[in-house]
Amino acid sequence: MEGEPTRVMLAVNESTIKGYPHASISSKGAFEWTVDKIVRSNFSGFKLLFLHVQVPDEDGFEDMDSIYASPEDFKNLNNRNKAKGLHLLEYFVDKCHEIGIACEAWVKRGDAKEVICHEVKRTQPDLLVVGSRGLGPFQRVFVGTVSEFCVKHAECPVITIKRKACETPQDPVDD
Amino acid sequence: MEGEPTRVMLAVNESTIKGYPHASISSKGAFEWTVDKIVRSNFSGFKLLFLHVQVPDEDGFEDMDSIYASPEDFKNLNNRNKAKGLHLLEYFVDKCHEIGIACEAWVKRGDAKEVICHEVKRTQPDLLVVGSRGLGPFQRVFVGTVSEFCVKHAECPVITIKRKACETPQDPVDD
């Protein structure tokens, strides 16, 4: 008999271009790889923890077309963005339920690398999985920064999954 | 029924101070962690590939007390060092046989980070596991360089396992 399941945290984000509720290819890829290569058929041996970090724009506004007239509007904005994040997580939770793997999922806001490491400290998973696009210069720098920071600072082993060049979508709208 | 086992390459090295045939604490730790948290009881679902890279000293001589008088002496030196590396691998192969996990092990010489990435390209494992000491400044820089390079350049997902401060031996001779 095995003891407690291995708790694997996956940091997932939305598609750069399609936005919510679409998961990024690198997030889907990291999830599918984890199930295929690590969990395999040992469904009861693992529990997946999905963390989505919402990164506010530099000025703190996600939706430039909205009009903010009262503190209530900001509250609604936050709720709305949180709902978007929850739809993203729903994708992964549904998949886990289909497969039969226990899971938990939650949303936090802030700087992705800082929040991920803070959540690792708080929830103490056995393993953190971070996907990485390996795409154009901007994404490489950005995603590289998050994964490099986590490899150095997260208080648990970290697996970095690079996307292969052949997995980069022809049409960036699919990313 | 599951398909081919997940092939996990572990880059292992000898104790910094005790030398061959003693495995480093970080190598042992990475191996034990992989078995406990990834393989768990699914022994037939995984195959472990142990790679030990022998790093020549800067001047190419490991043994300053030996006298080299002919090309044969160099040949013997190489065989001797290779034998040391094999003793190191024997530790891990024995453990796998006790547990019942399929494995392979081999020795290569050269620059650790380059050789590891080259062997990943050649043998195409599903996952590369690299331990890291997280010790004093020299080791941190050295091991950090190897694991950082592999995270960026190895053509497969890479897991970096840092050693916890509490696992650093009181007596460095045990490292």
TrEMBL record, chains A, B:
GO terms for molecular function: AMP binding. InterPro entries: At3g01520-like_plant, Rossmann-like_a/b/a_fold, Universal_stress_UspA, UspA. It comes from the Eukaryota. Residues 24-162 form the UspA domain. This is UspA domain-containing protein.
